[in-house]
């Protein structure tokens, strides 16, 4: 398969991300919306007030975007990764799209850890330590994201990712380079999170 040209990549990806990534923030907290979504009630037991705070569950978003090829298509400073591209420690935009579209996405794009079990009341904290933006979006089932070129063969966007950053539910889960989001009040059960841009980046949180 021929490498994708910058011009073709720009036509496929740039129009979507240009409108999506204009706003930025250092920390995003969506406790109220998430609690309402799960119909959570605040504990009324007086003993809860005396319980020691639980340590948060920490996650990091990682990637190895190649600044030269990503920024040539998506704009200056889109990829801020400090990557040793000359030594093979970076992935070009063309290789990322080609691999994802063929069902072999780059494993350098990842959430770590990818699975945890935590007690109820644990706050989930996710920091973007990669070079480009990601989302940490809760979904009912894992699937595709809102950028078709980065979905696997036959994979379509899951309902929670449809519309990309034009929808509030996706926009409020965005994490940009160096930023952190916090997710409190997860109810008991299994919760699935994925990046709506790079949908093979997935996390399972089991709340007990």
Question: What keywords describe this structure?
Answer:
single chain; 208 residues; alpha/beta; Immunoglobulin-like; five-stranded mixed sheet; four-stranded mixed sheet; 5 helices; 21% helix; globular
Question: What is the first-to-last residue Cα distance?
Answer: 47 Å
Biggest beta-sheet profile: 5 strands, mixed
Whole-angstrom Rg: 18 Å
**Poorly predicted parts:** 22-47
- The figure for the number of domains is 1
Helix amount, in percent?
A: 10-25%
Strand content: 15-25%
Arrangement of strands in the largest sheet: 1-9-5-2-3
CATH architecture: Sandwich
Backbone structural class: alpha/beta
The CATH superfamily name is Cupredoxins -  blue copper proteins
CATH class placement? Mainly Beta
Characterize the overall form. Answer: globular
CATH topology: Immunoglobulin-like
Quick take:
With 208 residues, this protein is an alpha/beta fold. It is 21% helix and 21% strand.
Give the SSE layout.
Elements: H1 6-20, E1 27-29, H2 31-37, E2 57-62, H3 67-74, H4 93-101, E3 110-112, E4 115-118, E5 124-128, E6 134-135, E7 137-139, H5 168-171, E8 174-175, E9 180-183, E10 189-194, E11 202-207
Parallel strand pairs: 1-9, 2-5, 4-11
Antiparallel strand pairs: 2-3, 5-9, 6-8, 7-10, 10-11
Please describe what this structure looks like:
The protein has 208 residues and is of the alpha/beta class. It has a single domain, classed as Cupredoxins -  blue copper proteins (Immunoglobulin-like), CATH 2.60.40. Helices cover 21% and strands 21% of the residues. A five-stranded mixed sheet has the order 1-9-5-2-3, with no helix packed on it. β10 (189-194) and β11 (202-207) form a beta hairpin. The protein is globular, with a radius of gyration of 18 Å. Residues 22-47 have low confidence and may be disordered.
């Amino acid at each position: 398969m021929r490498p994708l040209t910058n011009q073709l990549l720009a036509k496929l990806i740039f129009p979507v991300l240009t409108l999506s990534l204009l706003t930025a923030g250092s920390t995003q907290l969506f406790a109220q919306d998430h609690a309402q979504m799960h119909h959570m009630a605040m504990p009324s037991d007086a003993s809860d007030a005396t319980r020691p705070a639980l340590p948060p569950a920490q996650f990091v978003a990682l990637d190895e975007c190649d600044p030269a090829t990503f920024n040539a298509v998506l704009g200056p400073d889109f990829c801020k990764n400090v990557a040793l591209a000359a030594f093979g420690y970076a992935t070009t935009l063309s290789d990322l799209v080609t691999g994802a579209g063929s069902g072999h996405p780059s494993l350098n794009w990842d959430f770590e850890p990818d699975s945890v079990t935590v007690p109820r009341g644990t706050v989930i904290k996710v920091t973007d330590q990669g070079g480009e933006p990601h989302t940490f979006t809760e979904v009912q089932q894992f699937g595709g994201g809102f950028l078709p070129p980065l979905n696997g063969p036959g994979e379509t966007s899951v309902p929670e990712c449809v519309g990309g950053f034009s929808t509030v539910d996706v926009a409020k889960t965005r994490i940009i380079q160096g930023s952190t989001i916090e997710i409190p009040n997860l109810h008991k059960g299994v919760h699935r999170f994925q990046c709506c841009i790079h949908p093979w980046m997935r996390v399972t949180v089991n709340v007990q």
